[in-house]
Design brief:
With about 130 residues, the protein is of the alpha+beta class. It has one domain (about 5-125). It is built from five helices and four strands; from the N terminus they run βαβαββααα. It has helices at about 15-30, 55-60, 70-80, 85-90, 95-125; strands spanning about 5-10, 35-40, 60-65, 65-70. The chain has a four-stranded mixed beta sheet. The radius of gyration is 15 Å and the shape is globular.
Length: about 130
Amino acid sequence: MTSPTQTRALYNGACPVCDKEMCHYADYVSDHALPVAFDDLNKVDLAQWGVTEDEATRLLHVQHGGALFIGFEAFLVLWDQMPRYRILARLGRLPMIYQVCAWGYANVVARTIYLRHKRRQRRKSGNA
């Protein structure tokens, strides 16, 4: 797990969308020497995260302050750690905006990304 001052994000580096977004955040974090780390689920022991590969590919997971955050809440925690993105975290926590964004992320964005991931896996294994 993480220390109270460190944040870790678990993402799918094999997903072009996830990889691009997390690499963007990682560059920002690096440029500002922020205590945030990014773990590609394809390169770490998921048992340390307490999640399966399928769970990890479905939604963003973030460890912060000894707790695990999943889905849109994980984005809010991650954005809170980066000054440029704190305004997004604040806006995302507003009533109605939170409900719409959390639902939209889980049921539209993440679901679409997950289904594309599964399709890439089938193609790779020859079962398209």
